Amino acid sequence: MFRGSMVAMVTPMHEDGAVDWEALVRLVDFHVENGTDAIVAVGTTGESATLDYDEHCQVMRRVVEAAAGRVPVIGGTGANSTWEAIKLTRCAMEGGCDAALLVTPYYNKPTQEGLYQHYKAVADAVPIPQILYNVPGRTACDLLPDTVERLADIPNIVALKDAHGTVQRPREIIERCGERLDVYSGDDGNAREIILAGGKGVISVSANVAPALMHAMCMAALEGDRETAEAIDARLAALHKALFVESNPIPVKWAVAQLGLCGTAIRLPMTPLSEHHHETVRQAMLLAGVLE
């Protein structure tokens, strides 16, 4: 349904923790101008865990308004409560989002049948297109290929964001689900290979900082141009790594601030990037050509 570089956009904040609405519009414009193919509002990188329900809905709505149809908007609506996920997904639909991204229920550790019933309940309750999101390193919950294949039969479940950490897992799902389900990388470091294997794009942290390069890399990979995709990705490799020297979104929020697009403020329990990591992230930005 979507393809290319989809940014998991940071949520800009003032020092008191309030959402910086002016910076939010500035970020949306920045992504549109630099070729980002879709914007994910209030995903993990957007600090979904620390925004309350009203803020969550308002950020999604404001991103849709700022995008003004220039680029698709995907609302992050996952929760470890099925009822809450339904409520947030309905809010995304009513706010004008083109799709919803739903992370697996974290902490609860549901069974595979529980995961199937959770996603089926949300899909049945809200007709907006929905993207599964598997990131077991953060949720302690792994959405297995058998369950993904079952979910692919639900008409408005249209894609999977896979951040399992391997290339083999998304390749298996691509082979098993074929055209029934699009697969997106959830790891910038393996996005190129997943797209070349048949994936449709990446939901990216690095695109917050280097949107034009991420778009170009994705387009080359989608066209099967391995040589060009590898050359662009080589420029981004240090950035992919540096943006995880501390827990996401700590490094990327600092990096976006260095571009003058927002401040470094982040909500507890996250804290601003440790000073001893500043140079690592700065050097990665220089290698990518996004800082002078």
What does this entry look like structurally?
The protein has 292 residues and is of the alpha/beta class. It has a single domain (4-234), classed as Aldolase class I (TIM Barrel, Alpha-Beta Barrel), CATH 3.20.20. 45% of the residues lie in helices and 13% in strands. It is built from twelve helices and eight strands. The protein has helices at 21-33, 53-67, 82-94, 112-125, 136-139, 145-151, 168-177, 191-196, 211-222, 226-242, 250-258, 278-288; strands at 4-8, 38-41, 73-76, 99-103, 130-134, 157-162, 182-185, 201-204. The chain has an eight-stranded parallel beta barrel with strand order 1-2-3-4-5-6-7-8, surrounded by four helices. It is globular. The N and C termini lie far apart (36 Å).
Question: Care to give the gist of this entry?
Answer:
The chain is an alpha/beta fold and 292 residues long. The chain has helices at residues 21-33, 53-67, 82-94, 112-125, 136-139, 145-151, 168-177, 191-196, 211-222, 226-242, 250-258, 278-288; strands spanning 4-8, 38-41, 73-76, 99-103, 130-134, 157-162, 182-185, 201-204. β3 (73-76), α3 (82-94) and β4 (99-103) form a beta-alpha-beta unit.
Unreliable segments (pLDDT under 50, ≥5 consecutive)? none
Query: Biggest sheet, strands in spatial order?
Result: 1-2-3-4-5-6-7-8
Overall average residue pLDDT: 97
Instruction: Classify the helix fraction into a percent range.
Output: 40-55%
In the CATH hierarchy, the architecture is: Alpha-Beta Barrel
Q: How would you characterize the largest beta sheet? A: 8 strands, parallel, barrel
What's the total number of strands? 8
Number of domains: 1
Specify the CATH homologous superfamily.
Answer: Aldolase class I
CATH overall fold name: TIM Barrel
- Over all CA atoms, what is the radius of gyration? 18 Å
**Structural class, judged by helices and strands?**
alpha/beta
Distance between the termini: 36 Å
Number of H/I helices = 12
The share of residues in extended strands comes to 5-15%
Task: Give the SSE order as H and E letters.
Answer: EHEHEHEHEHHEHEHEHHHH
Name the overall outline.
globular
